[in-house]
Amino acid sequence: MLNPYIPVLILMAVAVAVAAGMSVATSLIARIFRLRRPNPIKSQPYECGMTPIGGARVRFSVKFYLVAMLFILFDVEAIFLYPWAVVHRHLGWLGLVEMGLFIGILAAGYLYLWKRGAFEWD
Question: Which residues are within 8 A (CB) of 29 and not within 5 positions of it... i.e. 6 or more apart?
C-alpha cells in the first residue's frame, strides 16, 4: 500500500541529508580556515553601496506605504487584464461590460486618490 510513496520519502530523506551536510560542511570549513573574523567594518550595515546614515529604526512616512499599496492595487489590475485580453472574444459583450465596470471602479479610486493628494511627495 505504501509502495507509491517510497520514492517521495527517499527524495525527502536525500533533501534533508544534503541540506544538513551542506550546513555542517560550511561550518567546518569556516572553522578550519578561520573565515569568521568579525571586525567593526564587517559588522556595519551595507545598503546599496552607500554609507548608512542614522539608525535602523527610522520611521517612514505614511505616504510611502500608501504608494506601495497603490502599486499593488494597480499591479493586480494588470494581472486581471492579461487573461481577459486573451479570452475577450469568447466572453462576448458581458465580459466587456464586466471589465469596463472593473476598470471604472479602479479609475474612480485613482481619481479619488489624485484629488486627495496621495501622489504628491512634498
Answer: 35
Q: What is the percent of the chain with per-residue pLDDT over 90, rounded to a whole number?
A: 23
pTM of the complete model: 0.46
End-to-end CA distance of the chain: 68
String of b and e for 99-111 (b: at least 16 CB within 10 Å)?
Answer: beeeeeeeeeebe
Quote the CA–CA distance of 114 and 81 in Å, as a whole number.
22
Helix (H/G/I), strand (E/B), else coil: 59: coil
Helices (H), the chain: 6-32, 40-43, 62-116
List Cα–Cα distances, 82 to 7, 86, 90, 95, in angstroms.
Answer: 39, 6, 14, 13
- Summarize pLDDT for 43-53 with one digit per residue, the tens: 776 667 676 67
Domains along the sequence of the chain with CATH: 3-116 (1.20.58)
pLDDT in tens, 53-93: 777 677 777 777 777 888 888 888 888 888 888 888 888 89
